[in-house]
Specification:
With 172 residues, this protein is of the alpha/beta class. Helix 1 links the parallel strand 1 and strand 2. The longest helix is centred in the C-terminal third of the chain and has 20 residues.
Amino acid sequence: MPVLVRYEGARDSEARAQCVRVARRARYMLRALHRDNAELSLLLCDDAVMRRLNREHRNQDKPTDVLSFALHEGQAVAGSELALGDVVIALPTARRQAKAHGWPEELEICLLLAHGVLHLLGYDHRSRAEERRMMARAHLLMAAGLVGLSGGWTSSLPPAHSRSPAGSRTAG
């Protein structure tokens, strides 16, 4: 399963190692979703790059924590679909959020990755009920990403009911 990860932005001494860790976590998540052959593109970036992307795609002139860009916008994503899309995570924002929550940076980045992947699969959080369902699913994916679980326990994830808008802002 091709998980492509790159970093863009100001020099970040942790970026290279973070790319390796995020790629591994993404592969575990895709395996847990029974999408071993899916292609996923990940961009880790600084706040300036995220601000530019957020401005270009959402008309929001500020950085955000994570953006998702589904390749098959507005369509249900079939289990055999090979290319899912792109997830962009702003590392400085993730670090600040982790500190504010009082938990490790790795946990926050894993949550943002899970949330972004779920958006690519059509999940959304436009209502409180959708938000609760999506967060529960994100926690399952986080478990897979953090410990490499790949059992069939995620097969109970029902298909998404709606698609997120292109470049929708996710968690945070």
